Amino acid sequence: MKRRLVPAVVLASCLLPAAAQAAPAPAPVKPAGPPGATLKIEVGHLERGKAPIFATVPVTGSLAPYASGQKVEVTFYLDGHKVLSRRVAVQKGKRGAGTFKASIILREDGKYAAAAKHVATPELGPASTMRKSWRVSFPALHTGQCDNVVKGFKSAMAKMGYVSGGGRCFDGRTGREVLAYRKVNGMAPTERAGKGLVKNVFGGRGGYKVKYPNAGEHAEVPLDKQVLVLSKGDKPFAIYPVSTGKPSTPTITGHYEFYRQEPGYNSEGMYYSFYWHNGYAVHGYHEVPDYAASHGCVRTFIADQPRIYDQINFGESIFVF
């Protein structure tokens, strides 16, 4: 009897309605994420893809749709390297979008770029932009000009050893340093700072390459360039335009040491003389042409010589070549 009941029980269980069997668990419902975002930027104050040195370049942008409390990170680059990042608030704008702005002051030459990024929040999804780039334009500078461009120019000159003093004005000392720069770089010996020269200076190009970098603090007078260079090892810290000996009375070449000072004027009109071999000296003089014209000494401008006199030390080497 028991053997006959088993098939009947099995058959009965198979005939049960589907509702009586266990139903599969429903798939979990994913919560809806924040709405997608669209991010755009524009770079202002450009002319033919350039902005003037020391200009403030604005970057404005939009983030859509607008959601309260959002922030955007605006990053600025110079020659591919990150130089500045600003996290700015998004303000309510028109047509359902938010707006933001950031800016950068151009203090160096090179290729600049800007990009923006919005990190996802519960209210709004992530978004980012491509980099938008621009370059720098440079003006010519003139005697008497006073502004931040001149100040930046003088600072950039000083980094290469052409120390033209502080301040924001293009004065006589600045002009003489421009003359020294032009002499070092084989340019026409004038005090003119044209656009190309200004661009090169801001780009750190046109420095003097020291010939005797292992000589410690010393002086160099390359006769072909008609400049006096004061250097600490391989780094010039002062460069001055000079006039050396004319062909009939050439400046002696070689390695010497400074050994005697003579302050003020002497009977020959030499000003604050520092001697390095017999009667040869570095001294100021009322006339310093842009070519070799002295009786053998290294002539400097009267306005520069007291400073040079203080910068040179007894026993210091001078190389004339």
Give a concise summary.
The protein is α+β, with helices and mostly antiparallel strands and 321 residues long. Helices cover 17% and strands 34% of the residues.
Question: What general outline do the C-alpha atoms trace?
Answer: elongated
Order of helices and strands: HEEEEEEEEEEHHHEEEEEEEEHE
Low-confidence stretches: 1-16
- Counting DSSP E segments of at least 2 residues, the number of strands comes to 19
Considering DSSP H and I runs of 4 or more, what fraction of the residues is helical? Answer: 10-25%
Radius of gyration: 37 Å
Portion in strands: 25-35%
The SS-based structural class is alpha+beta
Separation of termini?
128 Å
Q: How would you explain this protein's 3D organization?
A:
The chain contains five helices and 19 strands. Strands 2, 4, 5, 8, 9 and 10 form a six-stranded mixed β-sheet that branches. Strands 13-12-11-19-14 form a five-stranded mixed β-sheet. It has a four-stranded antiparallel β-sheet with strand order 1-3-7-6, with no helix packed on it. The chain has helices at residues 2-14, 148-159, 172-184, 195-202, 305-311; strands at residues 38-43, 50-52, 56-64, 71-78, 81-89, 91-92, 98-105, 112-118, 127-128, 132-137, 217-221, 227-232, 235-241, 254-257, 260-265, 271-277, 280-285, 298-301, 317-320. The model is unreliable at 1-16 (pLDDT under 50). It has 321 residues and is of the alpha+beta class.
